[in-house]
Structures are given as structure tokens and as C-alpha cells.
Amino acid sequence: MTNQIELSGVNKHYGAFHALKNINLSIAKGTFVALVGPSGCGKSTLLRSLAGLESISAGELKIAGELMTNVPPRKRDVAMVFQSYALYPHMTVEQNLTYSLRIRGVAKAEAKKAAEEVAATTGLSHLLKRYPRELSGGQRQRVAMSRAIIRHPKAFLFDEPLSNLDAALRVHMRKEIRALHDRLNATSVYVTHDQIEAMTMADHVVVMREGIIEQQGRPLDLYDTPANKFVAGFIGSPAMNFIPAVVAEDGSSVTIDLGTVKHTLSVDHQLQPGRKVTLGVRPEHITITSPGQGTFDVPVGVVESTGSSTFVTAETTPELTIVETGRGNARAGETIGISVNAAQLHLFDETSGIRI
Ligand SMILES: Nc1ncnc2c1ncn2[C@@H]1O[C@H](COP(=O)(O)OP(=O)(O)OP(=O)(O)O)[C@@H](O)[C@H]1O
Ligand SMILES: [Mg+2]
């Protein structure tokens, strides 16, 4: 089967600045892909290159099997949905929806029918006569989505479409967008810097940093086996704890140094004694025990509870973050025991950051 979107060896330079570095990405039809990474890593550049709004400096970009090199944006048959909605303020919802069809020569009555059909799927039927200024943020975002859907594009390209919405609406809209994607059997590329959004919405997550793809795969595979320290720290919230460690004489345990706490932990590996490594442990994989009952004891610093979970900071160097379900028993200023499971530890090379 040909992929709906295929990038091979794609590079993009803005003058001397190398914004995309050898990007290889294959997206099968029907897939929801999330592009994540810190600000400035090249997410929008990649999306805009797909849409034809940026030209690429080297490599190949195909949509539905067709090479896009000389195809202008209008002819690419992809729809972009932005955070700013980009609705026409002087047009009603219906006119916003029918506009792109009308300029393509679709007859008035047919365009109106198409708008009504799309509005019914996106819950806008009762708002067709309103102007954008008369809509809530979520409703405007739905108009922007509808305007993309009405064109039956080969792919939907989303650039942080929900970042203007409040937290509750964002959670609601991400379910709505994913449900629409499934209903339309669409192919979607969704840019976000919110890794939770990426993890919950996507079939395939692409983690970028400084113009390169650090890792791509299924969301939980990235969580379980991050390829390097960067991905390990980026995926998962709160972020993974990183602890400097040295492989002990036996080669199957490491000595960690947390300032006041020094301890030896078994690891599921056989390594060169003396090798410097970074130990990674997720906050949710540390269990709190009574003092003396865990792997080692630590002093408790800040304790923050949201009701459903509690974040405990251990006052070590570096600090450790621990997440407990519920309210927990840790109190600031007290000592607790903590225990970790060797199977849930991650090891990275100290210098390269690559997973061991
Ligand atoms: N037209 C341009 N000319 C020069 N440099 C540019 C241009 N557009 C983007 N860049 C640079 O390319 C890099 C990638 O930008 P891009 O907009 O793709 O980042 P991003 O990952 O979308 O970030 P954000 O999360 O902040 O939106 C940035 O360092 C940016 O400054
Ligand atoms: Mg961007």
C-alpha cells in the first residue's frame, strides 16, 4: 500500500539556518500522527512544507503517491487548521464554509448543501447564520475544522489548533477531533507542544528536536522504551527523574549519588564496571514506604496534592519527583522510604544520552 504522506531525506534551510535535517517519515492513510517537540524544533516548518507554504531545500515529499516538488499549495489538496482559526470575520459561518467551494466553481445550491451536511457532523447546524465574533472559541475552532472537512482533502494538517482554548474545552475538542478523524477515515498530521495531547490523540508520535526526528513510534512504546534521554524527559508528565550513576564491580548494579544519599541498585543489565551512566526513573514508578522499609530513605521537601494525585519532592541532589495516587501520607520535613523496581529503571549512556 502506498503511504498517504511520504517524506524522504527532507531538509529545509532558512538562509544559513538548518531547520529540518534529513526527515524521513511515512504516514499510512487513516493514521493520526502527532508532531511534538520544544518551541523552535521545526514542527510548523515541517507542516508548512507539507502544505507547500515553504519550499524544501532537499529531499522528496509525496502526497498520495505524487511528488509535490512542483505542486503549488492550492493544488496539493491538503487542509490546514490553525490555532488562530483564520475565519473571515465579515462572513457568516455558512459563507465561511462555502467560500472555498464557491471559488472552485461549485454551484451555490450544492455548496450550501455541503455546508449543511458538514455542519451537522460538527454540531454547527444552529449557528450557520452567525458571524465568527458571535461564536465561542470552541465553536470557532469547529468552524475552522468544518471548513477543512468540506473540501475532502487528502490530509488534514493541524498546527496547535487548541492552544487558544481553556483546559476543559481543550480536552473536549481533542476527543472531538479524533472522533472526526476516525469517522472521515482521514489522514491527519497534528502539531502540538503538549505531549499529553500527542499521547492521547495520536496513533503515531514523532518527537523532534532542533530539526531532527529523535524518535517516532506508538505513544506507549515511546513511554516504555524511549530511545534517548531527550525523549525520556519529554514524554511523560511529570518528567522522568535522571540520576547520575556508576556501574559497580559486579556489572549488574549501579551506584547512585544523590548528595546525602548514596546507594547501590540492581539493574537488569550486564555492563562494564566503572562506566558512567544516567539512571532514569519515572515519578509514577517510585513507591513511598515507611522509613527503613524501602530501597533507601530520603527527606521530603515540597508536597503538592491535586486531590487525585500527590507530587512529592525528595530533597536530594538532584531532587527527585515522586507521584502518588490519592492524597498520600508524605509530609514536608519528614523522612520517607522509597522503593523502585529494577524492571522499571531506564539506563542511558552518560555522554551520548542513548538508551542502554
Ligand atoms: N521564515 C523563517 N526564516 C528564518 N528562520 C525561520 C523562519 N521560520 C522559522 N524559522 C526558524 O526555524 C526554526 C523552526 O521554526 P518552527 O516555526 O518550525 O518551530 P516550531 O517547532 O513550530 O516552534 P513553536 O512550538 O514555537 O511553534 C526556528 O528556530 C525558527 O526561528
Ligand atoms: Mg510552530
| CATH class wording of the largest domain | Alpha Beta
CATH topology of the largest domain: Rossmann fold
Bound molecules: adenosine-5'-triphosphate, magnesium ion
CATH H-level homologous superfamily name of the largest domain = P-loop containing nucleotide triphosphate hydrolases
Enumerate how many helices there are, as a single number. 8
Task: Give the CATH architecture of the largest domain.
Answer: 3-Layer(aba) Sandwich
Q: What is the number of independent domains?
A: 2
- Poorly predicted parts: none
How would you characterize the overall build of this protein?
The protein has 8 helices and 20 strands. The chain is of the alpha+beta class and 356 residues long. It folds into 2 domains: 230 residues, P-loop containing nucleotide triphosphate hydrolases (Rossmann fold, 3-Layer(aba) Sandwich); 109 residues, Nucleic acid-binding proteins (OB fold (Dihydrolipoamide Acetyltransferase, E2P)), CATH 2.40.50.140. Helix 3 packs across helix 4. The longest helix has 18 residues. It is elongated, with a radius of gyration of 25 Å. The two termini are 35 Å apart. The mean pLDDT is 94. Bound molecules: adenosine-5'-triphosphate (ATP) and magnesium ion. The site of magnesium ion has 2 residues, from helix 1. Adenosine-5'-triphosphate binds next to strand 2 and helix 1.
